[in-house]
Structure formats: C-alpha cells, structure tokens
Design goal:
heterodimer, A: alpha+beta, Alpha-Beta Plaits, 2 helices, 4 strands, globular, B: 397 residues, alpha+beta, six-stranded mixed sheet, metal-binding (chain A), Fe-S_cluster_ET (chain A)
Chain lengths: 65, 397
C-alpha cells in the first residue's frame, strides 16, 4: 500500500498539504503542524498527495509507493 | 562549465509597469549569471524553476545576515537586517523557534473561519466606494484598507492606529527608508503593542496572534514586539500591492477578465494563476541567500561565501505548465513560487489567498464595468519599495 508520512521535526506548519489533499492531511490544533489523517489513502486521493509532496515548502511530506 | 560573466543588474526601468526591468530576462536566460547589485555586492542570479526551489530550500544556503543593523548596505530594506525577532534573517532551529508557534495562527482552517469576516470588510469598502462614486482610487478605497483591517484583527489590535501601521510598514519595506525614521515609528507602534500585550496577558487569550505569542510562547518582549510589527507590516504591503497588480493585469486583458466574470466561483483557482503570472512577469530578484559550502546549481558551482539571488521569472518556465509565459485563467493551479519556497515561504500565504480570492470575486462581480480612468502605463508605481505596486489606481465604472 502507498504510505504517506510527514517529518514533523522539519515541518513549518504552512498547511500546503491541507490545501492539496484535505481528506488526507490536517493541521494539529495544538501546534499547527501537519498531520496525516489517512496514512494509506485510496488511489483516487493519490494525485492530491503527490501535489502535497510537490508543494510542501519544507519538503517534509513523502509518499512511498 | 566556466564561470559566467559579471553583468550589472539592470536598473529597474521597466519597459512596461507590469513587466521585468529592461534587459533582465535576456541577461538571465542562459543560466546562472553573476550580477553586481547597486550596493556593489556580486550575486549569482538563479532563474530556473528547479534552481530557485533548490536555493530556497537547500540548507547549504543561509538566510543569515552577518552583523547587526550597522551592517546595512545601500538599498537594503529594514526587513533584511539581523535583529532579535527577525526570522527572515535566521536559519535552522533559531528560525523554527520563532516561526512555528506563529504558523498555528495562520492555519488553513483558521483562515477559512475568517472568510465571512473578510467578506464583510470587503463588502463595506465596496459599499463605500459606490457611495463615493466614480472616479475612485482603488488602492486607498480597497487594496490597502482591507488587508490592513484584517491583519489588525488577526493580531488582536484595534484598527484606530491604522495610519501608524501603514506608515511603519512603508518604512520597513522601503529600499531607501531611514533607519532613524523607522526606529521612531517602531517605538511609537511598540508602545501601542505593549499595552495590547498586557491586556492579552491579563485575559489569557490565545485567539489572536498577540495573545498566542504572549500566552503560549517563550518569546521575550523585544522578540514579541518586533514580530508583531513585522506581521502588521507584512500584512499591509504585500496583499494590497498584489491585488492592485491583479486588477491592472485584468484591465489589460479583457479576454481573461471575461473568464473571471463568467465564472466567479472559480476565483480561488484564478488567484493562483494571477499570482504565478503577475509575480513571474515582474521578474523580481530580491530574495538573497549565501552559500555556506560549495553547492552546484543549474550546472555552476556556487562557492562557499558567495551570494545568490533568485528571480521569480521562474514562474514563467515551461516545465511548470504549457504556455507558461501567458496568463490563462482557465488553467488549473500549479506549484508556483509566488509565496517563495523553503522554510521561509510566506507565513501569511493562507491569509493572503483568502483575501485575494474574496477581493477578486467581489470587486468584479460588484463593478462589472470597472475600468481604469487613465492608461495603466501613465499610472504612478512604487519603485522605492521591495514590495512593488501601483501608488494609486484611478478607476471609473
């Protein structure tokens, strides 16, 4: 299964992943950092995840396919 | 590859007020080239999409400035100086310590919650513009006051000090602003903000940015003041200038404007294309970094200690989208560099997006016959600020 991860140690909380794939990502109410809601998203959500990987300014979103 | 020739950076004589400085595109079109800045510093200019992303995100390039305000060089805005609380000139953990707590205040869901309030502010200003009647100045009637009120609310500061916020912002972003004038403005604003901070401390709120900084971070009082001033200033200067540039771009492109007016519900996506295109076309090259070790970018070796500047002409590169040199409001959103890239990417990007989307949709829906009262090429533009834009935009409808 394709797996989505965020490296929270380098995340800057820009929220670009939430804009790209709102069903897969959210921002934590505690610190604003990105969180993965759906670590193994279905195929129809993968284009949004790839967009999130591309857009993330801190380059901390990864998708292992 | 041999080292490129050193060229003087073109003076900001734009052939067209919405285009790049004369000769600049040609000068950077063959890959990295060293240019001499007006302050005498040589910097490599990187213009490729991949190269710009690399420079802005690779930790081997530092945003750190050496020395304090006394090291300011000619034409450098106050914004770039290394001072406590200036996260623009910090790297790594030092930068993250200041940036991270603030990102909570700009979360996507928080910005979405603000949309009805932004819409209300926009509508009030459009009402006032209609009552005033044509001609009106779009900058003072809409572009400047809307972001100004919104950022004041987000910080939790009363809008009665709006003129002080705006004048401090101008000094902060001005290329030739006086440090003394800025310090005096910042001190005056600092007093206002210190009182606000005391109130937030007493109430314990974390609902606004000052409350968040006071009650949930370890920022000292100087950091807190400088960050609050930077946020206020950044909230004014950027969104207001860019919305003005969007309107001017659309005045010149009736075909594109028709696409917006036919389908205003797609304004959200259209804002991304307008950001990509208008910022790319202006070709700004203000963001600078310094290599901390030798790094290869676009086939040249940037040696440790050398300066690098990136240009947003990269937004017009064909790898990003087909016919990238053209504005196309029917295009789907692409990963443009309008808000920068890397750990220093615009902190307020999600707020700016919400404001620009609401402004764009509302202005052209409310005034479908809006047009410039004088030709765009005859309008006055602000070349003295790192945030370029029209000084005023006379309009009729």
């Amino acid at each position: 299964m394709p797996t989505v991860r965020i490296d929270q140690t380098k995340c800057i909380g820009s929220g670009q992943c939430v804009l790209a794939a709102p069903d897969v990502f959210d921002q934590s109410d505690d610190d604003g950092l990105g969180v993965v809601l759906m670590p193994e998203p279905p195929a129809d959500l993968l284009p949004g995840v790839r967009d999130a990987v591309d857009r993330c300014p801190a380059q901390v979103v990864s998708l292992e396919e | 590859m041999t080292e490129a020739a050193v060229c003087p950076v073109p003076h900001e004589n734009r052939v067209h007020p919405l285009g790049a400085p004369a000769g600049f595109e040609e000068a950077v079109s063959n890959g990295p080239v060293k240019m001499i800045w007006p302050n005498g510093v040589q910097a490599w200019v990187i213009s490729s999409y991949a190269g710009v992303r690399q420079v802005l995100s690779d930790r081997r390039f530092s945003a750190m400035r050496e020395g304090g305000p006394e090291m300011r060089t000619e034409g450098e805005p106050i914004l770039g100086l290394k001072q406590p609380g200036n996260m623009n000139s910090m790297d790594g953990e030092e930068h993250l310590r200041l940036r991270r707590p603030l990102s909570r205040g700009f979360m996507v869901k928080k910005m979405n919650e603000m949309r009805p309030r932004i819409q209300q502010i926009v509508d009030e200003h459009l009402d006032a513009m209609e009552r005033h009647g044509a001609p009106a100045d779009l900058v003072s009637a809409l572009c400047l006051p809307v972001p100004s009120l919104v950022i004041a609310e987000l910080l939790g500061v009363s809008p009665e000090h709006q003129e002080l916020f705006q004048s401090t912002a101008r000094e902060m972003f001005g290329k030739n602003g006086s440090k003394e004038v800025y310090d005096a403005k910042a001190a005056e604003l600092g007093e206002v903000l210190a009182k606000v901070a005391d109130e937030k401390r007493a109430s314990g709120t974390t609902d606004d940015l000052i409350g968040l900084m006071v009650n949930e971070t370890d920022f000292d009082s100087e950091e807190l003041m400088r960050l609050a001033i930077s946020l206020l200033a950044a909230g004014h200067e950027t969104t207001s200038n860019f919305f003005g540039l969007f309107a001017l771009t659309l005045f010149e492109r009736p075909d594109q404007r028709e696409i917006l007016q036919r389908d205003p519900d797609r304004a959200d996506v259209m804002v991304e294309e307008l950001l990509r295109y208008t910022i790319g076309r202006l070709g700004g090259a203000g963001l600078a970094r310094r290599a901390v070790e030798d790094v290869e970018v676009d086939g040249v070796t940037i040696k440790a200690g050398e300066w690098v500047a990136v240009t947003f002409l990269a937004n017009l590169e064909e790898t990003l989208c087909p016919n990238a040199g053209e504005l196309d409001l029917e295009r789907k959103a692409v990963s443009h560099l309008g808000f920068g890239f890397g750990p220093h990417q615009c902190l307020g990007a999600n707020l700016a997006r919400a404001e620009l989307q609401i402004l764009l949709r509302s202005l052209f829906t409310r005034f479908p016959n809006l047009r410039p009262a004088i030709p765009v090429t005859e309008m006055a533009f602000r070349e003295d600020s790192i945030t370029y834009g029209a000084a005023s935009i006379p309009v009729v409808w």
